[in-house]
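Inverse folding, one chain.
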C-alpha cells in the first residue's frame, strides 16, 4: 500500500495528511481564516511525518489539491509538492479541490455543489451527483436568483463550503440546503490520491501548474489625496 503525503492549501485551511493506502497515519490542520500556509505548511509536513513514524525516503508519492481556489495558497502548496517530488524522485498526484469537497459529503439523494468563495457575489463551483460523479463543469459562477435552477427542479441541492454562505439571501428555493462549514482538506485529497496512485494517474512534475480558473488580479492600494 502506497505511502502518500497530501497537501491542501486552496482555501484558508492549511492541511497535511499522510496515508498508507486507505489508512490515515497522521494529519495536521489549521482552518483559521488567516491564510497560515506560508508559516505552517512545512511545519505540519515535518510534524505529520514524525507522527506517522516515517522517513522522507519512505514516501512513494505526493498529492496536492490543484484548485481552483486561492491563487497564493495554490502556489504555496504546489511549490512544496513539486519540491518534494524532485528531491525524492517520486510522482506527483493532483486532486481537484471541488471534488475533494464533494467527497466529504455523504447524502442519499440530490446533487452536491461545492462552492469556494471568490470575489463579491462570485464562487468557484462544480456539480456532482450523490455518488460523487461530476455532472456539471467547474466554473466561476456569479450568484443570482437563477443560479442552479436546473437542479432545484429535480430535488435537493446541497451547497457545500464557504461560498455557500453569501448565497442564503439570494437562493431561497426550499430545495437548497446550505452546508457552509465544509472546507477543502488533505484527508479527502489523500483518499482520492490512493486510487489515482493505483491507476498511475501522475502529473508531469516539471510542467504541472495549479488550476487557477481565473487570472490573478493585483489589487492596487488607492492613492491618498
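Residues assigned per position:
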Amino acid at each position: 500500500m502506497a505511502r502518500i503525503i497530501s497537501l491542501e492549501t486552496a482555501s484558508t485551511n492549511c492541511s497535511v495528511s499522510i496515508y498508507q493506502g486507505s489508512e490515515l497515519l497522521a494529519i495536521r490542520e489549521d482552518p483559521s481564516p488567516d491564510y497560515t500556509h506560508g508559516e505552517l505548511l512545512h511545519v505540519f509536513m515535518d510534524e505529520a511525518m514524525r507522527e506517522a513514524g516515517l522517513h522522507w525516503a519512505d514516501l512513494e508519492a505526493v498529492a496536492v489539491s490543484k484548485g481552483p481556489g486561492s491563487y497564493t495558497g495554490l502556489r504555496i502548496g504546489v511549490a512544496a509538492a513539486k519540491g518534494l517530488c524532485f528531491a525524492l524522485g517520486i510522482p506527483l498526484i493532483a486532486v481537484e479541490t471541488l471534488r475533494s469537497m464533494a467527497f466529504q459529503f455523504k447524502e442519499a439523494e440530490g446533487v452536491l455543489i461545492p462552492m469556494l468563495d471568490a470575489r463579491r457575489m462570485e464562487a468557484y463551483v462544480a456539480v456532482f451527483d450523490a455518488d460523487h460523479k461530476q455532472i456539471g463543469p467547474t466554473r466561476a459562477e456569479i450568484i443570482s436568483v437563477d443560479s442552479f435552477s436546473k437542479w432545484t427542479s429535480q430535488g435537493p441541492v446541497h451547497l457545500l463550503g464557504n461560498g455557500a454562505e453569501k448565497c442564503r439571501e439570494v437562493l431561497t428555493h426550499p430545495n437548497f440546503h446550505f452546508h457552509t462549514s465544509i472546507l477543502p482538506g488533505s484527508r479527502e485529497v489523500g483518499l482520492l490520491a490512493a486510487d489515482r496512485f493505483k491507476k498511475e494517474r501522475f502529473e508531469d512534475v516539471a510542467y504541472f501548474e495549479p488550476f487557477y480558473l481565473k487570472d490573478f488580479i493585483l489589487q492596487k492600494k488607492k492613492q491618498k489625496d
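The two ends are 63 Å apart (CA to CA). The chain has two domains: 3-97+184-198, 105-179.
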